[in-house]
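G., before I forget:
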Amino acid sequence: MSFQWKWEFTWAILPRLMWATVNTLLASGIGYAIAMVLGLVFALLLRTGWKPLTLPLREAIEFIRSTPLVLQIFFVFYVGPQFGVRLSPWVSGMIAIGLHYSCYLSEVYRAGIEAVPRGQWEAARALNMSTRDTYMRIVIPQALPPSIAGMGNYLVGIFKDTPMLSVIGVAELMQTANAIGSETYRFLEPYTLVGVIFLLLSLPTAAFMRQFEAWVRRKLGM
Amino acid sequence: MEMSAYPLELPEDDRPMVRFMNVTKSYGALTVLDQLNLDITRGEMVTVIGPSGSGKTTVLRMLMTLETINGGVIYVDGKPLTHMPKNGVLVPANERYLRKARSMIGMCFQHFNLFPHMTALQNCMEGPVQVLGLPKAEARARSEELLEMVGMIDKKDQYPSRLSGGQQQRVAIARALAMRPKIMLFDEVTSALDPEVIGEVTNVIRKLVNEHDLTMLMVTHQMGFARDISDRVCFFYQGRIEEQGEAEAFFTNPQRERTKQFLSAVKAAD
């Protein structure tokens, strides 16, 4: 193995890594979409205050947040079949990542919802609004801006966690870099490229989220 | 009093707009209101005064169903508000019943509670469109008319953060009126305002008293204003009505020792 950087080799493997990047972005996007929706569902369910539902759900969320994501990915993919649930690496991976991050996002939403002053709920009630309208039109729009910073952190987080999908063979960046390494016995260039690609995507995302937050606040008149 | 002793509906010839019947409210061991009995007749303007902690705001909040009650029944327009009839007796109202029952009540709050993500006009249109299901054009016309009435039509496209306290409170009054309530509740609506803008809000309320047939219940610390516009004043002390009477007589000739003490203390502070 040589630590001499080879540009020629770098250019040669770049297209393959770019394709893998598409998969990484896809995995992050799908995983995050699942997490956003599921997280909101969890946050709202926890607010119902119906003990038979909230107690197990709260425990489940704590459990998922306290165990490693990579273990959860293994579990869904390798243990699932023993219970007759046979899922492809992609589906398993998306379920594991989406579920894992939905637990974090539900906490972000919860904090955002709790930050909405009680007077807003009371005003909605005084206008005789339904619970659904109160959430959809009054509470969630106000809970959103303070949640965006936290949501942005987890978007970057989910993106950086996608390499864990390589353990079950999803052809994302990390897995592709590994494959290139074992085929060519050169690891320096593929791994470096993976790092650079992650950096180039993470940094603008964080900046974009800050812009987005400012835009949402303006849009909502706050 | 047994629940079965409360009528399912008040008789035709004895139907005040609001009736509190033995209403009790407590937080744990603390009794905020103790067996309150109070009638408010149609079109009456009743002011509730009293020291802090006397339960006066709780009266309004119970009527708006923001607080549940621990005993007794509140009737609005002859029908129970806090309870609903079931198999011939009154049981605590469920959410669906409450939505119907409270539709004739509107409320303004000390801290306005305008929706910060909506303009003044959108705040006013929200209820009529979402709750009453009015077409947007009609809701807009109604809201603009009310904003005009409270003198806020020039600012209809402003967000609450751009409005002063007095302006926000006037929008809040328009917002509540847009639901066409029969009963309006004002909970210390001038307490959070700078002294110089209190007048713009009290003038709007004055206008409502003179030009509308609303039934109104107001909690305030402004004795002069209460004396001016109320039909009746209720003085609350430790969860009970210590004294009540026609406004002018109440202020000029209070009967109870507690009332005299309170009024002179307020006067001294003014």
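DSSP finds eight helices and no strands in chain A. Chain A touches chain B at residues 117, 119-120, 122-123, 125-131, 133, 137-138, 141-142, 220-222 (CB under 8 Å).

More on Monday.
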